[in-house]
Amino acid sequence: LQDGLRSAFKTLRGQGRLTESNMREGLKMVENALLEADVSYSVVKDFMQNVTDKAIGQDVLKSLKPEQQLVGIVQQALIDILGGDSDPSLHLKPDVTVLMMCGLQGAGKTTTCGKLARLIGTEGKKTLLVAADLQRPAAVQQLHIVGESVNTPVYSEEGASDPIAVCQNAVKHARDNGIDVVILDTAGRLAIDEELMNQLKTIDLKVQPDQVYLVVDGMTGQDAVNSAKAFNDALELDGVMMTKLDGDARGGALLSVKHVTGVPIKFIGVSEHMDGLEPFHPDRMASRILGMGDILSMFELAQREFDQEQVQKTQERLQKGQFTLDDFRKQLNQIARPGLMQKMMGLMPGMGELGKMLQGGDHEKEMRRLGGMIDSMTADERANPKLIDNSRRQRIARGSGVSPQEVNELLKQFDSMATMMKGMASGGMSGAMDMMRK
Ligand code: GDP
Ligand code: MG
Q1: What residues does GTP bind to (predicted)?
Q2: Side-chain half-sphere CA neighbours of 299 within 13 A
Q3: Domain that holds residue 328
Q4: Distance from C-alpha of 184 to C-alpha of 131, rounded to nearest angstrom
Q5: Overall average pLDDT of the 218-238 stretch
Q6: Helix, strand, coil percent values for the chain (each to nearest 5)
Q7: Could you read off the pLDDT of 113-153 as tens digits, one per residue?
Q8: pLDDT value for 433
Q9: Residue 303: pLDDT band by 50, 70, 90 thresholds?
Q10: Is 103 marked as binding a ligand?
Q11: Does the residue 89 lie in any domain?
């Protein structure tokens, strides 16, 4: 999708102004890109209608480049569909709040239960996880392991066969024990079936959860739409959590699920680890779908994981328009942790290649390799990479035991990173977007 949209906008580049006909052409390409991304056809149709209505009759602003105007319109329409009014709150009550998680088998319910418990714990509230998936033999055990990893008690009943009774008993147990939030981990099936839906409906009726959330696997594309519709018809969902939006998952499913159910998307799962849950931001997702990288998420991640003081220093240098290979080297040290590098690279526009270089292989070795190249540069070269001509490149390559091409690759990646950083320092988000569009 990202490549598709990017190229769609590229064809608009260089045109003096946005005319009705060249915009139509661009919109047609946007439509194709969305379809390619597995957004369901009816959703795409509505979306294109929405965008066209907005765009036609709108004066072309002289201060904007044509593609900026179309990007703006498409982006706003994406935000509208995804839920401009999004609300990541779980609406916890002062006494016990019961959350029910449902979804197909393997969607990520149990994992998301743990992530939510962890999140709620950071707000100083007590959670009880409830093992209501009695379908799979190992499900109860799995929830106990998850609960342990997030320091959260798990309610389960030995040899139980009635999930409704387990849920009811658990809620009572929670009330008696000063628990704030009860999370019901229900059973899923491989596909929607009557028995599963009836069981869930009965729990809904008898236990009366305050919020019912659907957990959807973000990698399932078109299937996500069908199951979301079935669950919403049966249970009147309060929200959706979409998992597995790390990796190559397409944002397309999100668009469709939101459109089909109309319920807010609350959280997205971005890793299999317990800290891999993020509030859903429609604006960021729209940017991501448009291929601009999820810059805000990246900075949030950076802020959480980096040494704050270092971040501060780097930011000060950025404000002055300075971002050197020395800073880059320091960042490499900071992020020399498994997983984090790939995560950041995946989120950054134009960094796909470096991310790929780091993927799969020996992570630390790659870090050493990149760091080694920078270490083989003189202080002057690090402050001003433009100095690095052919002979210097040869020397750096020899010094760090790599090929001159690898040095080139590093410099190219550094360049796009520096450009983005400078754009961000001078003009915030929109500044960065502008720099990237050039
Ligand atoms: P359930 O059957 O719905 O309870 O699904 P599980 O919670 O057991 O998750 C199924 C698989 O998906 C497990 O291997 C999880 O580690 C994985 N998983 C869940 N959420 C995410 C996510 O956000 N990202 C990734 N990469 N994996 C996830
Ligand atoms: Mg489960």
Answers
A1: 103-110, 185-189, 243-246
A2: 15
A3: 295-437
A4: 7
A5: 86
A6: 60, 10, 30
A7: 999 999 999 999 999 999 999 988 799 999 999 999 999 99
A8: 43
A9: very low
A10: yes
A11: no
Tell me the average pLDDT across 92-112.
95
Structure tokens at 278: 């993020």
**133-144 pLDDT, tens per residue?**
998 879 999 999
Give the percent of the chain with pLDDT over 70. Answer: 68
Rounded to an integer, the average pLDDT of 300-316 is: 59
In this prediction, residue 35 carries a pLDDT of 75
Nearest CA to ligand 1 atom 12: 108
Please give the tally of structural domains in the chain.
Answer: 3
The full DSSP string for 40-103 is -HHHHHHHHHHHHHHHTTPPPPTTS-HHHHHHHHHHHHHHHHHHTT--------SS-EEEEEE-
DSSP lists the bridge partners of residue 143 as none
The rounded distance, in Å, linking the Cα atoms of 147 and 131 is 10
CATH code, domain carrying 278: 3.40.50.300
| Residues contacting 315, CB < 8 A, separation 6+ | 425
The letter for the amino acid at 298 is M
CB 211 within 8 A of CB 88: no
CATH of the domain at 414: 1.10.260.30
Query: What was the pLDDT predicted at 13?
Result: 46
Q: What ligand 1 atom has the least distance to the C-alpha of 133? A: 4
CA pseudo-torsion sign 159, 163, 168, 173? positive
Q: Per the domain annotation, does 289 fall within a domain? A: no
Judge whether 72 lies within some domain. yes
What ipTM does the predicted assembly reach? Answer: 0.99
Residues forming a β-bridge with 268 = 242, 278
**Per-residue confidence (pLDDT) for residue 87, from 0 to 100:** 74
Q: Are 400 and 411 in contact (CB under 8 A)?
A: no
What's the predicted TM-score (pTM) here?
A: 0.66
Compute φ and ψ for 99, nearest 5 degrees: -110, 135
Other Cβ atoms less than 10 A from the Cβ of 336: the count is 16
Locate 103 and state its tokens.
């979804």
With tokens 């005319």, the residue in question is: 19
C-beta separation of 191 from 226 below 8 A: no
- How far does residue 245's CA lie from ligand 2's centre (Å)? 18
- 269 in Cβ contact with 277 (< 8 Å): yes
Residue 397 CA to residue 157 CA, distance in Å, equals: 63
Whether 268 and 128 map to the same domain: the answer is: yes
Pocket test for ligand 1, best of 111, 146, 240 (most atoms within 8 A of CB): 111
Strands of 154-155's sheet in order across = 154-155, 127-132, 181-186, 97-102, 211-217, 239-243, 265-269, 277-279
Q: Given the structure tokens 């002979």, which residue do they identify? A: 391
401 CA from centroid of ligand 2 (Å): 48
User: Is residue 88 domain-resident?
Assistant: no
- Nearest ligand to the C-alpha atom of residue 103: 1
Q: Is 246 annotated as a binding residue?
A: yes
